[in-house]
Write the structure tokens for this entry.
Amino acid sequence: MMMKWGRELTILAALALLAGYLSLTQPNFRDAFTLSTILTNAAYVGVVGIGMTMVIVAGQIDISVGSMLAVCALIAGTLARAGAPMFLVVLASLALGLGMGALNGALIAYLRIPSIIVTLATLTALRGAIVWWTKGYWVMPLPPGWKFLGTTHILGLPLPVWIGWTAVLAAAYVLAHTIIGREVYALGSNPQAARLAGIDTARVTFWVFALSGLLVGLATMLHVTRFSMVQTQEGLGLEFLVITAVVVGGTNIFGGSGTVAGTYLGVLLLTVTSSALTFLGISATWDQAIRGAFILVAVTADIVRTGRWRQPVGWAR
Amino acid sequence: MRIRLLWRERVLIGLLVGSGVLLALLSDVFFTPANLLRATRYAAEIGLVALPMTMIIISRGIDLSVASNMALSAMTMGLLWQRGIPVWPAAALGIAAGTLAGWLNGWVIARVRVPAIVVTLATLAVYRGVATGLSGGTGILGFPDSFLALGAGTVAGVPIQTIIWIAGIAAAAVFLTRTAVGRYIYGIGHNETALRFSGIDVDRIVLGLYTASGFVSALAGMIYAARVGTAKSNAAAGYELTVITAVVLGGTSLAGGEGTIVGTMLGVLIITILQNGLTLARVPAAVQDVLIGTVLVGAVLTYRERAGRKEVFVIAPPQPEPHHAGGRVLTDPGNDLAVGEERRNP
């Protein structure tokens, strides 16, 4: 049990230390508003992180999530401005995410183009299309109903936090206890063996990317409905933040192992660290450097702990 | 010495000539010597960094931190110069900083054996982040003309950085095809274990490759700072993607063991000429990205068709082909032995 949850316990300890230190030294940190902001930020990043965990466990990568989020956000905002009811806006965002994810998935699974090339192409193409289409203008003002999802509170916590937790729990169950979930792990640890065992590897790969897109569509709604405008640079660099969280959360970057719970804790740790910088008066310009150091420390510790460092160098093995 | 071109290099030359003709039809300014020489100023930065990148990808590694390294070394140079150190010693120290950053990548990859994609993804953030942190978010301007000449000057009408690039191409091509270490780099990409068993110090070569990548990135960082006249922390943002795109377009396989300097040079030329010509033809940046993305995906598909549908793994580890022996499926016995050997002789 200790070994199985080792990574999750390590992150929890780090999180507790950091949060404990901050609440003792910075009275503002204990503020309900700060906590709810941290949890809300973690909710949408965490939902994207669920999809990324599945993609990475399956032995692939998806770096187009930030661009997909921006497309969903802008189309949703435009629809809302055109007078579409909110449930239709949410549906549109989910469908759009699913569609873009399915496009990635089809190119990767059926045309068998490496995922890093496909999602690199969609990352640039979608981001470019946004700039071309909006010419850099923000989508605003948005109708009053827009902020319903982001500002409704249940038991003192915003609705997005609850939706995020539900999604994490559901995904954790699906990955650990259903056939399709186990197929994702099988595919990631040994594609050849998975194929020989009768798993339709192309279908699993396709659906992992399609689901990742769908979750980006959901995350978009959790994120942008807190603000009264949609910016064109929405989601910029999100892929890096999410991949960091997934790796810090203990998922093997080469596939085959990892948990959604670990990813969510990784997201929390990164979010708390970000706000810790503000509280400790460290300039936000150092944020990126610290995130990078996080990845390096987490992965190195993991490799030394598991003794995998005796394996050959390289990145694709 | 007879120069033999691979099949895909001929395709690339066709692509280059084709897009050149098309762009010349779309814009009057494109096919003028002045514009083409100006385009090579940008191409030289991409092209220089692409040289060690080609070797690293051939060895089945990757270096995502190159653009951040460019910013970090340019920023180091700028800050030292601002504090009163003359510009050329400051530039030398900046290049030293970038080389050290590259060595650090190589050390973690070769000695600690953390996968290159993870290490360089992390240092992509660390190096850019340190550059941002040090600069406090502001750029440094006002370098002396002698330094700016590195980015804007010419020798006999040819931009200085273009000359540096051509020299780099020649050196890299000779190194990769005519020296033993160059051949070992292909070997590392094909079968690293076999190379180790042949008594070759793979770790040292890998360490050298990433250090070289750091050195060249830093040099390109100086050229960038001299060309735009500013040292800033967001310098060369996104260049790593352009460089990797050019290398892959040039026919270097992300699965390792395959690739040429000539191919990379052609890849760099196609991408930079497309960017330059399409901008002159007033094609929006978004459409340019889509076009370049399509060219890349098309090229990768064509190469694969030609290679007989050989599957390309990028993130998923290439598993050894199972041996079918009397109805039982065994994994590669040689490979297992190799792992055992490693364990016995750490």
